[in-house]
Structure formats: structure tokens, C-alpha cells
Write a structure and sequence with these properties.
alpha/beta; Archaeosine Trna-guanine Transglycosylase, Chain: A, domain 4; Ribose 5-phosphate Isomerase B, Chain: A; 3 domains; four-stranded parallel sheet; 23 strands
Amino acid sequence: MSTPFSEYAVIVNPRQVGSLKADNIAVAKVDIPAGWELQSNGHTTRISQPIPRGCSFAINEIARDESIIALGVHVGFASRKIAAGGYIDPAGLGNMRHELKSEEPRLCSLATETPYSDDLLSRTFNGFRRKVTTAGKEGAGTQNIVAILNTVKCSQTTTQNIAYLAKQKLLPKYPNVTDVVAITQEYGCGMPVGKAKAELARLLIAIMNCPNIGAVYVLGLGCEHLCPIPGVEGSVFTTFADSVIDFEERAQTDHLQHYRSELAAVNAIVDGPLIRMFEAANRCEREPLPIRHLTLGLKCGGSDRFSGVTANPALGVAVDRLIRGGGAAIITETPEFEGYMHVMAERSRDEGTARWLLNMIPRFDEVSKTYPIPESGRQQVTPGNFKGGLLNIFMKAAGAAAKAGSSAVEGGLEYGDSIYVHDRRGLWVLDCPSYDQISTPALALSGCQMVVFTTGRGTAIGSALGQVVKVASTREVGLDQHIDFFADGILNGESLESVGEAMFEKILAIASGSDATAIERWNQLLLEAGLPHQHYEFMPWKRWADN
């Protein structure tokens, strides 16, 4: 059977563009039987064996040891001759880990000036105006959260109970407060004074300075190393007071040993000092603000082969629109730049940023040695990724990087660093693990009000620090009721630009509070069902244990 190529398969990168090479494999949009002939621009590819939907096949014959190119980059070498129309499976794809070497990059050769658009520069969203640095730089939040923090494991449960009671007693009384959330961690007690204590204090400060936090109540036990109470030896109170934005107006610290019982503490705090934090947050109202104040976090999880065809490149279009309007985006997941970092280095604004990017993978190699994972284990895709047609980390990385669009890379951020201390907006890269529960809040710690999370397999993740917008590569994704946007119109004839523009409008609606995310709606349903936990995921990267 002879049929048009584009009806049944996609070549994501059909021609060389800069350092991105022309793909020599395609991805099947549907199950394609053996013997079918796909026609494109006078060229015929005869399918030599059945190709399952979402899997890859050779466009032309690929000789043994020839590079296999997907999404514009090398993803492996053919371990045997692969016939035109032949299925690309693990047996035919060699060099799946460190053996694949990137070519020498041409640093900064692809960096271009941002083509700002007057129409986009004039776009607004309804956000909460607030300072984003201690120096008073103006920014905004898309939410106005009262956060309850613990400084030590011993006050974690109390912190959670305070938030639970405050959600019932206080939240309904303050219309400008969007939520009250317990943001907890398990350290702070017997940790060594020095790097560990300083890193944890820095993490808590980054939480308190997150643009979505309107006010914060910090609860300790009273005798821990990371004690937040003034006058205690080794107290971090002064550190907090000096580093947290408008500390006196929107933050308060306390400790459990101040009370006779935990229940007494919960009731006294909710009926007393926490009210002042709600009043402080409630003074902030939504107002029209330029989109230059928006910073999007870019994250993916449970990816499939279609992620690099639909969801991620469509998000890249939305990101380019935001950046042309003066906004910013941060992409992360260091291990998933494997095999693609040379492209990001070529898109870097300056040589310092390019070399920082090229060193990210070697630095992470050293970090990985401190964790109990097999050698080269971080290069392996998950079983779900594999089932979805992703054969190795290089193929996954090339698809994941499409989220970043086409803008130049302005700089790099270390974990917990704020984008707002820099003068430049645009695209930034955050050095952080791929693990969803670490990297999603890490983007908020660096200043993202929202995280756009693409998935091909499905996920229910939320965040304690901001909204998570779920974008699915197809409608066959699991947990489809947790999805905000389906990008599979690209497979059905819609243009990449039109899908990306629709996603951009969806993001602005959610940022303005006129549309809730799916996970926000599910959090409410879970609460109404009497279930004790909602999706406020937060997990710190315990970097102090790396050395």
C-alpha cells in the first residue's frame, strides 16, 4: 500500500539547521504494517517490518556503525545494517551510554538576539505584585500562599496540622490568599555545623523568597542546630532576618518548646500569630502586570517518543513567545542534557555560560558517585520511557531540550539560586537532578511561579511552591484527568505554532487565576473526600551529603 508519509509518520528534524542534523529515523504515528510504502517529496520508504505506534524506523538504509540521528542529534550507532523502513530496537542501537561522544561545539555560534515583539511586550496577566529580591526588585506571583515551614523533623507533624486547621478556619476569611501550605523537610537537628547547616538555611530562605509566597510562619522545636529563635546559641534568626524579603512584615518564627503541648501549639498559633501572616498576605491583590514578570519552569516526566514530537516542541513555541514578551524560562534536569549539551553551548549568550553548561555533566558525574546507583545508571531510561519508544537517554534528552524553544541561553543557575539577582531575563539552565519531586520545586526556588510539566505516560505531581501545568503528548496518556493541555493536535494536522500559541494562552489564563490547574481541582476533591494528603510535593536536594 502506498500512502503519504506525513499521514502515518513524522520526521521531527527533516533537514540540517545549524548544528542540528537531519534525522535519518522517523516515528510512527500509528501501527504501520510491513510492506507499506510511505511517499514524501518523491522519495519512497518501504516499511520492511511492522512498526508499532510511537516507535522509530529508518527512513533510508543505515549502514553498520553509521550514526543514528533523532531530533537533530546523534543518539547512537547502528550495531548492524538497518534496512530502510526497519524498526529501530535496542539490538540495533549500539553505544547507549558513555561511548557516544558529542562533536566539538562551536561555542555561542547559534546565539541570536531576542526578537522582542511589541504585541507580546504589551501582554499582561493578573498577578500579585511583590518584591523578588531584598534589594527591592519588583516582580510578581501567580499565587499568594501562606506557607508554614518547619526547621527540624521534630516540628514537621505540627506544621502539617497547623496548615490543615488554618485551611479550614482562616483561609475562607481572606479572599486574596490563594492557599495555605505546609512545606516540610526532615533535617535540621543533629546535622554538622558548617556546610550542611548553611545549605539547609539557604534552602529555607529560597522557599520564603519564592514569588508565590505571600507570608510565612516558621516553626522549630527550640533546641535544634537550625533553631530560628533569637537569643539561642547558633540561631539562624539573624540570617533569616537579613536574607528574607520584608522579613518583619511577612515572616514570623516560633518554637514548640514555647508551648505545653502540641495541640495547644496548633490552636494557639492558628488563633493568634498566624492571623497576622494571613493579614499581611491578604493586603496583596491581583492586578494586571506585564508578562515580563513571569518565569516558567520547564520540566518533563514519564516521557515517550511523542514527547519530542508534540508536547515539548509546542512548549518551546510558548516559551519563545514569553521570552519575546520580556519574560523568562528555566529548564533543568542535568542528566537529561546528555548528548545535547553541545547544542545548548552553541546557543549560549557568552563563553562563560557555554563552558559552565559543558561542565554540568562531568560535575553531575561526580555527584552521582555518592548515590547508591549502578555505574552509568543515570544514563538509563525508565521502563515507562522505554515502553513509550525512548531507547536511551540521548533520545530522551533531545526531545526534552525542545521545551527550551529556540532562544539563546542567558546563563546558568546553581540549586537555590534566584534568577532575579541577575539583570537578564530570557532562557536559563538550572543544574539539578531529574527526579521530579526534587527538580519541580527547585524551579520554584529559583524564581519560577509556574512549572509546565510535559508527560507522555501521565503523572499526578503537584508542588508546594506553585502551580504545575500538565501537558500531555497524546490523549492515550495515563491519569488523563490530571492533564491541562493535550498537544496531540500536531499529530492530526495542526501546526506546531498554533498548538504552541494555544498552550501559551492557557498558561496566561492559569497565571491570572481565571483558570485552575487540573491538580488544583484534584487537591480540592481529595480534601472534600476526607483524604489527609494532597499534591503539595516538595523534596530538598541534600547537596551537603555529596562530598
